[in-house]
Inverse folding.
């Protein structure tokens, strides 16, 4: 029996060695291939220097801060390793409640926002109605406004002194703060994300597929359920996950209207800054990071690959838009009603900036703007200056990374691709606390300087510019650039004279998004502001928390005006360069 057992063990060991040898051989062959490819690519010194520099920058400003957060979550007050913080997360009532609240809110907001976004997308792509351009304009409003604009408007409409609840209905004990208010605010703020994503998918479906189902006797409802929805199911899942990530990462709205309904994003700030418990804040940040990372990986490497090819060439004909009043009236009616509500919410902000005291005295005044200019001029100048500095850096860096990822093959390309897109999933509060932990000591002591704020702006805005550049480059024949190489141009000249002009629409679109993101950023930079530098969004949040709605509205209006001026300037530059469109892929 022992001999048989020994023989079996020997056979198992031999089999494991053979399999191990095969995998080691494949792994060695893979790395040898990558090394050979890298040597060929790095023959051009410009490419070599650019690639290595970007890897170093991403390692310092993306990976290192996240590792510092993880490390700090295990370090106790005496410097020893400790699990205390993680134990407290699930045993302390406040942190455990924040975890449950975050997940509950994100699931409900994800379902509601995705459903509403799908209705808008279907209405825009399949229904025969006029005024569809209003939907796209509405979808841009959350992007160009401060992140708590909706919360501010909802408080002014439905709060204890709200225009609707108190002035019109006479209710004096209304409480909009908490779960219900936060649910409404996040749904209104995030459903445009789902709409923009699903609208493109629904328009890309070949109409002949749906027409074939109808020709075979299927009703419009059955065609919708059995053909249209299944074709965009991966997109629906993608939209849900993106909204879910936005919800769990949201910091501004819970701070403004959350009340006693705490979330993980706000708990990180309150624990680390309010209670001076850096280890506890880091542990909550790690849990928030883990949730976001799991969803990001699922979205990027599973859902995005589960797509259906429905266009094999030019579509057979234009889609026959649905004009049946039984479908058009309820769907379009709901979409236009919600569009009107969204416009009303955002228009209320500039109106409130001229009201003397909201809920008490509705007489008109310009005192809020005088106060905003006197007290907030420094914040206006600092925010605009930092955004102007970070915008071209983020835009150019995004195009360079996109060029390297799409056009070059070398060892480390996967690291650049993943880490550069990582910040789109990492909540801003996690990045903020990571920067505080990383850059508050030797060798890079950047806390309190403009550099750390600019770095945060760039890292947060970088992924959108990269995705826009990648999308544009994938549509350009590499042979155009190869011809320039054959004529003796180096990588730098090819990029400057051929590649960049061909993707200028995506480049300028990335510039606009970078500027908007820098001007409206709050969750990361609230950890990084100092006496030397003041930011508009932090100042607005302070005014909202102090119930100074007129001043907060004035600051918000000034910010929106600056953003629109910048958009106009960039569009004018783009028009002078011979193009009138911008490609920003979200």
């Amino acid at each position: 029996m022992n001999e048989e057992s020994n023989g079996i063990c020997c056979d198992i060991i031999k089999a494991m060695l053979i399999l191990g040898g095969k995998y080691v051989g494949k792994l060695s062959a893979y790395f040898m291939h990558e090394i050979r490819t890298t040597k060929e690519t790095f023959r051009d010194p410009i490419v070599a220097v650019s690639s290595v520099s970007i890897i170093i920058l991403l390692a310092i400003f993306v990976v290192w801060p996240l590792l510092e957060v993880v490390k700090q979550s295990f370090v106790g007050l005496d410097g020893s390793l400790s699990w205390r913080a993680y134990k407290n997360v699930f045993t302390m009532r406040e942190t455990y409640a924040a975890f449950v609240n975050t997940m509950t809110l994100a699931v409900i907001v994800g379902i509601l926002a995705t459903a509403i976004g799908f209705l808008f997308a279907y209405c825009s792509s399949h229904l025969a109605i006029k005024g569809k351009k209003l939907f796209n304009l509405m979808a841009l409003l959350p992007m160009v406004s401060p992140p708590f604009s909706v919360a501010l408007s909802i408080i002014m409409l439905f709060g204890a002194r709200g225009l609707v609840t108190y002035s019109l209905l006479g209710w004096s004990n209304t409480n909009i703060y908490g779960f219900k208010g936060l649910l409404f605010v996040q749904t209104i703020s995030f459903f445009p994300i789902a709409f923009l994503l699903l609208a493109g998918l629904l328009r890309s479906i070949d109409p002949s597929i749906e027409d074939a189902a109808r020709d075979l006797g299927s009703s419009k409802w059955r065609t919708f359920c059995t053909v249209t929805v299944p074709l965009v199911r991966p997109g629906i899942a993608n939209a849900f996950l993106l909204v879910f990530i936005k919800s769990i990462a949201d910091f501004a709205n819970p701070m403004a209207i959350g009340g006693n309904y705490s979330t993980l994003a706000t708990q990180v700030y309150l624990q680390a800054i309010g209670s001076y418990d850096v280890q506890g804040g880091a542990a909550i940040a790690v849990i928030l990071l883990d949730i976001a990372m799991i969803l990001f990986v699922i979205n990027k490497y599973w859902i995005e690959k589960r797509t259906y090819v429905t266009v094999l060439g030019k579509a057979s004909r234009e889609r026959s838009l649905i004009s049946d009043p039984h479908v058009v009236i309820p769907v379009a009616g709901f979409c236009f009603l919600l569009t009107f509500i969204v416009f009303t919410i955002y228009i209320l902000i500039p109106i409130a900036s001229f009201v003397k005291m909201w809920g008490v005295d509705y007489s008109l005044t310009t005192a809020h703007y005088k106060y905003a200019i006197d007290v907030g001029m420094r914040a206006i100048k600092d925010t605009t200056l930092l955004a102007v500095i970070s915008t071209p850096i983020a835009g150019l860096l995004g195009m360079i990374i996109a060029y390297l990822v799409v056009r070059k093959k070398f060892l480390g390309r996967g690291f650049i691709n993943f880490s550069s897109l990582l910040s789109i999933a990492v909540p801003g509060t996690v990045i903020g606390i990571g920067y505080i932990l990383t850059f508050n000591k030797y060798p890079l002591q950047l806390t309190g300087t403009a550099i750390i704020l600019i770095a945060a702006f760039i890292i947060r805005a970088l992924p959108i510019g990269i995705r826009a550049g990648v999308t544009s480059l994938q549509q350009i024949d590499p042979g155009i650039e190869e011809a320039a190489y054959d004529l003796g141009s180096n990588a730098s000249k090819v990029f400057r004279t051929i590649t960049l002009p061909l993707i200028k629409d995506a480049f300028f679109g990335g510039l606009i998004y970078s500027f908007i993101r820098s001007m409206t950023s709050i969750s990361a930079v609230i950890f990084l502001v100092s006496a030397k530098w003041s930011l508009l969004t932090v100042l607005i949040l302070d005014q909202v928390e102090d119930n100074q709605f007129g001043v907060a509205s004035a600051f918000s209006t000034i910010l929106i005006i600056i953003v629109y001026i910048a958009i106009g300037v960039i569009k004018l530059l783009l028009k002078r360069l011979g193009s009138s469109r911008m490609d920003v892929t979200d």
Summary: The mean pLDDT is 82.
